[in-house]
Amino acid sequence: MRTLLLALAAAASLCAQSAPSARPARAEIAAMEKVIDQRLSRFGLERPVEVLGLTRGLYLDGFGAAFTAEVNLLPAVGVSPFRPSLTKEDLARLREQKLKRLPQIRALMQDLLLAAAQSLDRLPANEQVVLALMLYSHSWEDSSGLPRLIQMQGRKDALLAVALDRQPRSALAQIVRVREE
Fold first, then answer.
1. Which 3 state secondary structure label does DSSP give 112?
2. What local confidence, expressed as pLDDT, does residue 10 receive?
3. Which of 43, 46, 125, 140 could form a disulfide with 157 if both were Cys (CB 3.0 to 4.6 A apart)?
């Protein structure tokens, strides 16, 4: 009986020691935060997006890794003492340009999910990778038809299969869940 208790205690100790290695370290999450920030800041070099703050990521035990960022898809010349108001044409043009950028930002988000699946080595294969972008608009903008949030998520193993060319990129339509509001 005593040996059984000692064996169980030793097994519990080994499980407790091995459990932390089965999840991403803070350094892995922080490295992915930087990758997301860099890729967002390089998006659309001729008219870059405005990254508002730094990406934040965290690991949720048993669920996966989640990353959030806030961006302005197309920084606009705002209201100032030198330009007290914007015309309706200016506002309509800004809205149309932002709408045209949505497919590009969605494609970038898919790329970032694939990159996260590849870089988060210690994230368990059956857990999720989530990326949520909050899309900022000024109060004076016409944001009709523009989402405030785009959230994408998928299982690491499925994302990794696409990233490693075991599945075609077209499979992302079934792998990645998208929520926009």
1. helix
2. 47
3. 125
Indicate left, alpha or beta for 74 from its phi (over 0: left) and psi (-120 to 50: alpha): beta
Is the pLDDT at 163 greater than 80? The verdict is yes
Dist. CA 122–CA 24, nearest whole Å: 5
Return the pLDDT at 112.
Answer: 98
Residues 131/153, Cβ–Cβ less than 8 Å: yes
For the entire predicted model, the pTM comes to 0.85
Q: Give the torsion through C-alpha atoms of 7, 12, 14, 19, to 10 deg.
A: 160
Q: Give SS3 for 163.
A: helix
Band the pLDDT of 8: cuts 50, 70, 90: very low
Backbone angles phi, psi at 146, to 5 degrees: -100, 130
User: Rounded to whole angstroms, how far apart are CA atoms 78 and 137?
Assistant: 11
State the residue for tokens 């992915």. 32
62-to-31, 79, 81, 171 alpha-carbon distances in Å = 21, 47, 52, 25
CA 126 to each of CA 19, 63, 123, 153: distance values in angstroms, whole numbers, following the listed order: 15, 9, 8, 12
Domain ranges of the chain: 24-180
